[in-house]
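Tokens as discussed.
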């Protein structure tokens, strides 16, 4: 089982790059995107959070169910859904303003994973009290034998020194760390993490693992926007780990050939996502067909 921990929210996305354009609600949040993407790929996946029982929360829950995501550890509360107002630049890149006070996911009470894979990241690690509980679950899951993955997905609004030190405090429990090239300098030295995957935007994706390093280029597509691109990569990576039946020891034994296969799958999945408006992640057969050039 892959267990994804963290927030689900609603992105209010402008219909054009005009800042006064009408806003279109879209389901989002890094962990939500990862969980739903994994479900669409056919992974055995669970989402742990706390959802609102408002209209947005109800839509989020149904979308996860439709993707085949397990929700037995995802309770519902009266608190509202977190909102993120998105601004799009001319190149399709996105920035966000968050409305998080008193929202449901801040009160999540996650549980540990014994074995399997545990994925943590994004806004949920920046907001107490849930952030402290997620860090405890990551540590407990690592001690219980899970492959713990971290995608900090650092948002400028929360990129404080306190948040940096909080994330660094998690690193000893992490097997796989995914960073964007912009996040590398913020987080600092990550040599204690055995596997670090770095996304390079349109240039592709690289990995530093026990075997050494390698980079896989991204396929060229027309970019609609970049919403959900990094989340798709995190989902594709963990899908591949599960599909290959890798425990922590097996993952650390992967060589360059296997990593290039894994990274190729991930960049093709992400390319499909950025070719679509919003975080509309692909299904497995779409990725495989794209890799085959169909």
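Sequence:
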């Amino acid at each position: 089982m892959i267990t994804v921990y963290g927030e689900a929210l609603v992105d209010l996305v402008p219909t054009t790059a005009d800042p006064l354009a009408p806003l279109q609600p879209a389901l989002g949040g890094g962990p939500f995107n990862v969980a739903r993407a994994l479900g669409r790929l056919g992974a055995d996946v669970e989402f742990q959070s706390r959802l609102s029982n408002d209209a947005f929360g109800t839509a989020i829950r149904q979308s996860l169910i439709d993707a085949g995501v397990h929700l037995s550890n995802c309770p519902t509360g009266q608190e509202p859904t977190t909102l993120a107002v998105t601004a799009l630049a001319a190149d399709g890149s996105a920035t966000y303003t968050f409305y998080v006070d008193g929202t449901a996911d801040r009160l999540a009470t996650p549980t540990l994973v014994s074995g399997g894979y545990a994925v943590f990241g994004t806004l949920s690690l920046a907001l107490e009290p849930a952030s402290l509980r997620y860090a405890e679950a990551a540590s407990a899951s690592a001690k219980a034998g899970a492959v713990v993955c971290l995608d900090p997905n650092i948002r400028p609004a929360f990129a404080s020194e306190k948040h940096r030190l909080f994330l660094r405090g998690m690193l000893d429990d992490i097997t796989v760390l995914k960073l964007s090239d912009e996040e590398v300098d913020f987080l600092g030295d990550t040599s204690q993490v055995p596997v670090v995957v770095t996304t390079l935007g349109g240039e592709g994706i690289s990995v530093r693992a026990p075997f050494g390093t390698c980079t896989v280029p991204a396929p060229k597509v027309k970019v609609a926007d970049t919403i959900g691109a990094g989340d798709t990569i995190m989902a594709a990576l963990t899908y591949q780990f599960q599909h290959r039946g890798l425990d922590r020891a097996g993952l650390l034994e992967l060589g360059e050939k296997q990593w290039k296969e894994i990274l190729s799958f991930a960049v093709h999945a992400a390319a499909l996502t950025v070719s679509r408006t919003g975080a509309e992640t692909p299904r497995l057969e779409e990725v495989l067909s794209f890799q085959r050039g169909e």
